């Protein structure tokens, strides 16, 4: 008879950090990239958001490698198998990341999570399961994970999709928005021209969402 066991080992994670250039304690904006992407892709999105220069921006790279159609390598946060173990591992990874960033740059305690596509669900999980409380969550092109509970703990939420996005459909977007409203979440809905990848209108709305958080006290 075969018995299944799991051996927990240390893993090495990669992240990119762009400290705030102001030289003073700054809020932290942590990003989660989409399926098959790398940390560089998400940091690029964060840098396009107007006002992000007032934040220390960090892009966390997923632990699981995938091979893309062109043969290049990318990363993935989750798979259909062993979801609970992946969620737990990603949460420990995130907590360690925020601890490390706080040690490397001056952080004033304010924290926002941003996620694109598959990373949108990760941003929600980070806010709900991580030990560092967030002021807000920004989701673009991706939905609320099915296991998420107590959404009222998310703080403010920015939820966005492209009008011609075939992956994050209008039906799923509206269902997520209603789910936020039912939970009493302060949720800003936004749409932009184009498909799955964020376009200029998205970055304008994201900048407007971030701006007032610069003047709020840490939770």
Describe the protein.
The protein is of the alpha/beta class. The chain has helices at residues 39-48, 83-104, 118-129, 170-182, 200-210; strands spanning 15-18, 26-32, 56-60, 64-67, 73-76, 107-116, 136-140, 156-162, 187-192. It has one domain: Alpha/Beta hydrolase fold, catalytic domain (Rossmann fold), CATH 3.40.50.1820. Helices cover 31% and strands 24% of the residues. The strands form two sheets. It has a seven-stranded mixed β-sheet with strand order 1-3-2-6-7-8-9, with helices on both faces. A two-stranded antiparallel sheet has the order 4-5. The protein is globular and about 60 Å long. The relative contact order is 0.15.
Topology:
Elements: E1 15-18, E2 26-32, H1 39-48, E3 56-60, E4 64-67, E5 73-76, H2 83-104, E6 107-116, H3 118-129, E7 136-140, E8 156-162, H4 170-182, E9 187-192, H5 200-210
Parallel strand pairs: 2-3, 2-6, 6-7, 7-8, 8-9
Antiparallel strand pairs: 1-3, 4-5
Features:
single chain, 219 residues, alpha/beta, Rossmann fold, two-stranded antiparallel ribbon, 5 helices, 31% helix, globular
């Amino acid at each position: 008879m075969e018995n299944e066991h799991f051996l927990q080992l240390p893993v090495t994670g990669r992240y990119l950090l762009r400290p705030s250039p102001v030289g003073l304690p700054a809020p932290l904006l942590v990003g989660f990239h989409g399926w098959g992407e790398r940390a560089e892709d998400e940091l690029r999105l964060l840098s396009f958001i107007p006002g992000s220069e007032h934040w220390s921006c960090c892009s966390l790279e997923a632990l699981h490698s995938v091979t893309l159609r062109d043969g290049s390598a990318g990363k993935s946060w989750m798979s259909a198998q062993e979801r609970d173990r992946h969620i737990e591992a990603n949460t420990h990874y995130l907590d360690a990341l925020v601890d490390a960033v706080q040690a490397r740059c001056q952080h004033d305690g304010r924290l926002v999570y941003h996620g694109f596509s598959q990373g949108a669900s990760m941003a929600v999980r980070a806010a709900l399961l991580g030990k560092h409380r967030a002021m807000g969550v920004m989701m673009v092109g991706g939905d609320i994970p099915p296991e998420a509970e107590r959404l009222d703990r998310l703080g403010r939420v920015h939820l966005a999709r492209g009008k011609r996005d075939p992956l994050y459909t209008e039906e799923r977007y509206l269902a997520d928005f209603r789910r936020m409203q039912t939970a009493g979440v302060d949720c800003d809905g936004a749409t932009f021209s184009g498909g799955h990848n964020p376009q200029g209108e998205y970055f304008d709305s994201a900048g407007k969402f971030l701006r007032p958080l610069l003047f709020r006290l840490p939770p």
